[in-house]
Amino acid sequence: xxxYLRSEKSRKSDIILFIWNFRIILFSCIILFFNSCxxxxxxxxxxxxxxxxxxxxxxxxxxxxxxxYAVKAPPLSEDIFPCSGCHTDEEPNPNRRQLVDMHDDxxxxxxxxxxxxxxxxxxxxxxxxxxxxxxxxLIGFDESYRLCGQCHGDKLRxxxxxxxxxxxxxxxxxxxxxxxxxxxxxxxxxxKAIKPLPPPVQQKDIQL
Length: 208
Prior knowledge:
Elements: H1 2-56, H2 84-87, H3 104-109, E1 131-132, E2 138-139, H4 144-148, H5 153-160, E3 167-169, E4 175-177
Antiparallel strand pairs: 1-2, 3-4
């Protein structure tokens, strides 16, 4: 009889202990769940801030951060720049026409969307030593990549990260970029076709 009572008490104690352990585990799981949800919400809010942050630094169509790119001096034509040297005393002619008295060499090769583009789409008629964005904003020739990037946005994106074009400097520090016009003629940007050369001779094919 005593053995039976002790066995019955033992079973009841085990059941009570199981119930308390179950409650503790369940309570801990609930706390962990809410902590996890809170942390995920914080991360999502942080990511949302990161996604919207670039909009804060934009004052117009051109990102202000573009001014942080250090570029080499543009390859301006010798004895041609500054343009104001000749154009200051001339009456501006905004009419599209074939150039014959000056810049006829440029007119002869001009193939940069010739059907739709002309000089004054990129050059300012009033401030000849500046380039002009589509918005009318004037920029220097050392920021010509901003002008090119209006139409060639994918190339500008790749240029900024070093995929397109050339840059020198530290891999994780200051860099200097070559402008688009260091490689492309702005009036005829397409590269001429290059005749392919035969592959290099492999060492095993060299006959002594």
